[in-house]
């Protein structure tokens, strides 16, 4: 059933990540508009991952597929690792690509729920390594520390707004060529609104249907003055698309 009715849908992810999302949009009858609003590059710290003594850690936590990819791009994939916790189905799938499995996956894919569920695995002095991006929140570290864990954060990548995306996004918005906005992180919202405000394009997005993948992104969108029309109960892109379709057909 073609339920997006030929509507154009912004896909804010990079080339490697956009293909499955675009395929889903097409299945629902939509027209994907691929404009990466975020991209990632390893930090200098990432180059030295292989020198880290992982035997001293009880747990390794991955919060995104990007973290997994960058971690293993520098780490010997045959190395012995501590027990592994992941947030999200895509993160788990990416981990399996490197030959590892997750020992812990929360039922709800947000940091708050992760800390609440994972706390049962933590005792006083539990050593945890948490690779992350430069814009990631401190919530997991702080939350697990309150339960007695020693959490070492490792900033292995930084997030940036691709220069070539700015001009393309401006043109698409100015021509009102995007009907549905998918936001998959607070950073995608920040970068989108930078282009909107810089180009005085607030009126050109009034018609857009806006969907956010989870509560953290929704909160950022509201802070930026946007009206969020859809947010799924399960925080995946597929569920996000279904929640938008439900809104459209309501």
Proportion in helices: 25-40%
Report the sheet with the most strands, covering strand number, pairing sense and barrel closure.
5 strands, mixed
Residue ranges: pLDDT <50 for 5 or more in a row? Answer: none
Structural class label? alpha/beta
Given the C-alpha coordinates, what overall shape results?
Answer: elongated
Radius of gyration: 19 Å
Beta-strand segment tally: 9
Number of helices: 9
Percent of sequence in beta strands? 15-25%
Oligomer, anyone? single chain
Query: Could you tell me the mean pLDDT?
Result: 92
Task: Give helix and strand order, one letter per element, not per position.
Answer: EHEEEHEHHEHEHEHEHH
Distance between the termini: 16 Å
Strands across the major sheet, in which order? 3-7-6-4-5
General description of the model:
The protein is an alpha/beta fold and 250 residues long. The protein is 37% helix and 18% strand. The protein has helices spanning 15-27, 65-74, 89-97, 111-118, 139-145, 163-174, 186-198, 215-223, 237-248; strands spanning 8-11, 31-34, 39-42, 59-62, 83-86, 127-133, 150-160, 180-183, 209-212. The chain has a 5-stranded mixed sheet with strand order 3-7-6-4-5. Strands 2-1-8-9 form a 4-stranded parallel sheet. Strand 4 (59-62), helix 2 and strand 5 (83-86) form a beta-alpha-beta unit. The protein is elongated and about 55 Å long. The mean pLDDT is 92.
